[in-house]
C-alpha cells in the first residue's frame, strides 16, 4: 500500500525549486525565493568555496555558478517533505559526480523557512566529511 503524497502551498513552492534544480533552470529555482533569502551550507565546505551563507538571488546565482568548478555534477532526489508552521523539512539523497567521474550517493536534509509562499532561508544539512570524500574521489 502506498501513501498519498501530502502537499501544501509551501511544499508545492519548494517542489518547484527542486524541479528547477533537475532541469538546471535557475529562474525556476529563484522563483520561490524571497529577494533577501539566506542560502546556508555547512562551514565545513569552505575548502571548496561552498560553505557559509549566501544572501539573495545574486548570492545563489554566484554559488550555483561556482559548483561546476568543484563538481562534475549533482542531482537531488527529495523523498520526504514535512511541514510544521513556517518550516518545511525535506529529506532525500543527492548523487554527487566528482570531476573524476566517480558517482557517490549521499543523504541530505534541507530546512526551508517560508513566508507568504516564498523561501526566506534554506539550510542544507549533510555530512561534510562524506561530501569531501566524494569530491576528492
Task: Explain what you see.
With 137 residues, this protein is of the alpha+beta class. It has four helices and six strands; from the N terminus they run ααββαββββα. The chain has helices at residues 9-23, 26-30, 56-66, 128-136; strands spanning 33-41, 52-55, 73-84, 87-97, 103-115, 118-125. A six-stranded mixed sheet has the order 2-1-6-5-4-3. The longest helix is centred in the N-terminal third of the chain and has 15 residues, at 9-23. The chain is globular and about 40 Å long.
Helix content: 25-40%
Structural class category: alpha+beta
Q: Could you list the spans in which at least 5 consecutive residues all have pLDDT below 50? A: none
Shape: globular
Lateral strand order in the biggest sheet: 2-1-6-5-4-3
Number of strands: 6
Write the layout of secondary structure elements.
Layout: H1 9-23, H2 26-30, E1 33-41, E2 52-55, H3 56-66, E3 73-84, E4 87-97, E5 103-115, E6 118-125, H4 128-136
Parallel strand pairs: 1-6
Antiparallel strand pairs: 1-2, 3-4, 4-5, 5-6
What is the compact description of this entry?
The chain has four helices and six strands. By secondary structure, the protein is an alpha+beta fold.
Amino acid at each position: 500500500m502506498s501513501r498519498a503524497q501530502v502537499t501544501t502551498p509551501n511544499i508545492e513552492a519548494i517542489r518547484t525549486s527542486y524541479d528547477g534544480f533537475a532541469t538546471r533552470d535557475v529562474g525556476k529555482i529563484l522563483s520561490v525565493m524571497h529577494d533577501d533569502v539566506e542560502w546556508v551550507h555547512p562551514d565545513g565546505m569552505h575548502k571548496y568555496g561552498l560553505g557559509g551563507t549566501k544572501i539573495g538571488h545574486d548570492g545563489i546565482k554566484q554559488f550555483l555558478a561556482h559548483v561546476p568548478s568543484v563538481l562534475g555534477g549533482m542531482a537531488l532526489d527529495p523523498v520526504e517533505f514535512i511541514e510544521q508552521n513556517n518550516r518545511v523539512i525535506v529529506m532525500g539523497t543527492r548523487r554527487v559526480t566528482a570531476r573524476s567521474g566517480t558517482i557517490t550517493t549521499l543523504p541530505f536534509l534541507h530546512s526551508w523557512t517560508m513566508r507568504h509562499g516564498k523561501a526566506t532561508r534554506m539550510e542544507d544539512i549533510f555530512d561534510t566529511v562524506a561530501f569531501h570524500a566524494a569530491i576528492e574521489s
